[in-house]
Design brief:
Helix content is 38%, strand content 19%. It is built from eleven helices and twelve strands. The chain binds NADP nicotinamide-adenine-dinucleotide phosphate.
Length: 284
Amino acid sequence: MDISGKTKLVGILGYPVSHSLSPRMHNAAYRAMGLDICYIPLPVKPPDLQTAVQGLQAVKFLGANVTIPHKVAAAGLMDRLDESTAKIRAVNTIVNTESGLAGHNTDGEGFVRALEEVTTIDYGSAPAVLIGAGGAARAIAFALAEKGIKELAIINRSRDRAVALKTLLGNHHSSLPVSVLAPDDVGRELVTASKLVINATPLGMKGNLKSVPVAVDNLTEDHVVCDIVYSGSGDTPMISAAREKGAVTLGGLGMLLHQGAASIRLWTGMDPPLDEMRRAIEFK
Ligand code: NAP
C-alpha cells in the first residue's frame, strides 16, 4: 500500500476491533478501484467514543464504520441521521460531510442481501426468532419488518433493551406481532415453529459449543439459521449445529460483505468490486 500525504482515511471504531476483517476487505476494494484510500482499525473504549468521533472531523477522515459496542451511542453523536437510521437509532457508517457528521446504517441492507443469496424466503409466511437487541439486531429487525416478516420474537439477556427495540418497531410497524423473551424462557417449540433464527449477539465468537444461544436440536431442513458473528476459524458453533440438522445456514461473512459494500457507496459514490472483497475475506 502506497500511503502519501494525499491518502484519504476511513476506519472502524469499536472495542475490540482486532478480530475485524473489515480493514482487509475495504483495502482490497480501494486497491481494485484505484482509489487512494486507506482503512484502519480504531480501537476505542466506550468513554472515549465522543472524543474519537470528534477526531474524525479534526483529522478529516472520509468517515468510519462503527461496531460493537458503539452503534447505539454513536447515533447520539451525529449531526444528522438518514431517514431509516433515525428510526433504528443505531449507526454503523459515519460520513464526514462539509455540513457535519451524517449517520447511516447499512447492516439491515447487508443482512437481507446476504440472506437472499442463500435462500428464497417468503417473508410473509416466516415467523422469525432474533437473538440480541443491540445495534446490529435493531437494523436486522427493521429490515425484516420492512420486508413484511410474519412475526418476530426478540430474545435478549437484558429485557429492557429488547423492550426498547419492540417499542421502536411498534412506532413504525404497528401491525407486526413482536414478543420479547428472556433466553431462559425460550422453549424448543418457539424455535421449531419459526422459519428464520438469527443470532445477533457476539455469542459464538469464542468457538465454544456452550455459546449456541438457543436450543437448536429441533431444527430441520425447513429452517434458515443465520449467525452474524464470523469466526476466523470457520463456522460458529450455532452454524455447525444447525448444518448438522440440515437447516439452510448463513454465516456472518455475507452480511460483512454487503454492509461494507454499502458503506463504500456512501463514502465514494461508486460501486465496489464484490468479487475482490469476497476474495479478501476468503468468502466461500
Ligand atoms: P451491541 O450493540 O453491543 O449489542 C450486543 C448484543 O449482544 C446485545 O443484545 C447484548 O445483550 C448481546 N450480548 C453481548 N454479550 C452477550 C453475552 N455474553 N451473552 C448474551 N448476550 C450478549 O453489538 P452489535 O454491534 O449489535 O454487534 C453484535 C455482534 O454482531 C458482534 O459480534 C458483531 O461483531 C456482530 N456483527 C456482525 C456483522 C457482520 O457484518 N457480520 C455486522 C454487525 C455486527 P445486552 O443487551 O443484554 O447487553
